[in-house]
Amino acid sequence: MRIAVAGGTGAVGRYVVAAAHQAGHSVLSISRSSGVDVRTGDGLAEALQGVDVVVDTTNTGTTNRAKAITFFTEEARQLQTVGAAQGVARLVALSIVGLERVPGFGYYEAKLGHEAALAAGPLPVTIVRATQFHEFPAQILSRVGLGPLALVPIMRIRPVAARAIGEALVGIATAPPATTIEIAGPEEKDLVALARSIVRKRRARMLVAPLPLPGRAGRAMRAGGLLPSSEARIVGPTFAEWLQGDDLASILP
Fold this sequence. Notes:
Rossmann fold, globular, alpha/beta, 40% helix, seven-stranded parallel β-sheet
């Protein structure tokens, strides 16, 4: 099977590429570094020639609602329009568990728009909603540190390894189509506690302080709005197991 991975150099996309190669598929990594801009469509038609399935793991660095909505809707329309024209059979897109339960958070509203824009196109789409990654608290620490202080949002999550999601996406891309699938890790955790575990692992001199996000979104995150349903597929490893592996080192500064 010929699989194209949009966002193939990203946090999950690189694991999709690796897992697809390991499974014996023909794989194309699509990113701006490879000369393809999924949002504008530049180079996309050439990239999708002969592709059977597109796995969409693209992301944007902005949390601004308007900018994120623009990015995701334009990207989804390009994949649908160009993919259909090139004979792609279907799309598999990565999204987030609990989007509709956390109102008022611009990035999540943009991801809901992403799902809707994908569903509106001519190609069938499987939406894979995942919980926050094991890598997420390390990413938070790298963004919110104020010298020796890091403010980490209070939220209940059931984290999952990005590598496990990448492997699952390949399996879903090569299996009979589905509509929506949820994937989560094996344990419910507190994001602040996970961040502190990473600080201890790094032996860093940093104080992690809990930050209660304001408004409806913050209340929903603290109340478990991002936790998966009982129908979610549960995949390992646990956070503690992941912390002892090599994946953490690859994302630390």
